[in-house]
Amino acid sequence: MRDIIMEKHETDEQGNPAGGTTSGRGFTIQWQNGPLRVNGTRREPSGAFVEDVIAAALGRLQAYQATKFHCRENALAITKLEETLHWLDHRTQNRERRGVEGTYNV
């Protein structure tokens, strides 16, 4: 049985992602609020990105695999998380090529 996850995802006046929080047993995530590039200037991140959280879960499963708790299911989950990070990186590279990474431009 999974614990309850509490989520509050915020948007700005234009409907763009604007931070928020997600929490559950033993964790709280403060999500990035707004774009990283404003008026051509890159600013410091204000919160976590989806990729950060996936990478943390991936690291935990990899740690399990180095113990007596290694199993096929963990290996499959690791593969899927690695694939997820690959596609999110692919999206980022595509946005960088188009010059819209770090902005709300689509």
What does this structure look like?
The structure is a single chain. The chain is an alpha+beta fold and 106 residues long. It folds into two domains: 1-48, no CATH class; 49-101, no CATH class. 40% of the residues lie in helices and 22% in strands. The protein has two helices and five strands; from the N terminus they run E-E-E-E-E-H-H. The protein has helices at 50-65, 72-97, and strands at 6-11, 17-24, 27-31, 37-38, 41-42. It has a three-stranded antiparallel β-sheet, with no helix packed on it. It has a two-stranded antiparallel sheet with strand order 4-5. Helix 1 runs antiparallel to helix 2. The N and C termini lie far apart (38 Å).
Count of DSSP-assigned helices:
2
**Weakly predicted, low-confidence segments:** none
Query: SS-based structural class?
Result: alpha+beta
Give the strand line-up of the largest sheet: 1-2-3
So what's the overall shape?
A: globular
- Report mean pLDDT, rounded to a whole number: 95
Count all strands and give the number.
5
Cα gyration radius (Å): 17 Å
Helix coverage percent: 25-40%
Q: In total, how many domains does the architecture comprise?
A: 2
Distance between the termini: 38 Å
Profile the largest sheet.
3 strands, antiparallel
Proportion of residues in extended strands: 15-25%
SSE sequence, one letter per element: EEEEEHH
